[in-house]
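Supplementary Methods. Inverse-folding protocol.

Structures were first reduced to a discrete structure-token string of length 213. This string, shown here, constituted the complete conditioning input.
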């Protein structure tokens, strides 16, 4: 799809970054090696992937599960690291590892952010100066949702949407309050609730989230 085709691939920068961190091995197979033309087998998760990103991007997580399963089979790692910015992806990979009996430790790492709170993402390079400035509203909206005075899911979502809408260039895809384990909608914020969002700035789609409570 267009999102895949537009995804940044700064190979030289990646190599230099790995060298600076004394990485021992960089595994970068070609697309033709990973995806035969006549491929017909896929890995699909059918519960956690039906909401949030899965609802907005049908088939996305089938691709994620398939390629991650292939990488796990090829590399046979002891551990794999995934960021909490892609919270749903992290949850789905954990479920896949459990259900398919992979002996791999899935390590979650906190979202890395820019100075103004915007979650670091490869897609940020596509934001123009004004879009980049306004995108900081996402973190502002998420932090405001931690206000204990907001009692219901609707209150929380409405507040988040209102703050995001203060940025004229923001176009909301979704703002949802869900259980952090099941990713299903909940009635009110609790100790294990996740507020997740996806917002367009121009043609660039950004995601972020925060665990409430």
């Amino acid at each position: 799809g267009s999102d895949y085709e537009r995804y940044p691939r700064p190979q030289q920068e990646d190599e230099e970054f790995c060298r600076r961190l004394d990485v021992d091995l960089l595994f970068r197979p070609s697309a033709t090696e990973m995806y035969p033309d006549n491929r017909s087998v896929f890995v699909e998760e059918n519960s956690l992937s039906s909401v949030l990103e899965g609802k907005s991007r049908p088939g996305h997580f089938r691709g994620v599960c398939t390629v991650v399963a292939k990488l796990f089979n090829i590399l046979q790692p002891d551990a794999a690291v995934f960021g909490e910015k892609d919270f749903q992806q992290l949850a789905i990979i954990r479920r896949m590892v459990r259900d398919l009996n992979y002996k791999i430790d899935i390590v979650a790492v906190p979202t890395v952010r820019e100075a103004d709170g915007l979650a670091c993402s490869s897609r940020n390079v596509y934001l123009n100066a004004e879009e980049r400035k306004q995108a900081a509203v996402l973190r502002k909206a998420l932090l405001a949702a931690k206000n204990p005075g907001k009692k219901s899911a609707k209150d929380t979502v409405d507040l988040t949407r209102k703050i995001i809408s203060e940025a004229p260039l923001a176009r909301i895809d979704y703002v949802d309050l869900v259980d952090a384990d099941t990713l299903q909608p909940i009635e009110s914020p609790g100790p294990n609730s996740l507020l997740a969002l996806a917002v367009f700035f121009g043609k660039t789609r950004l995601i972020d989230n925060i665990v409430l409570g």
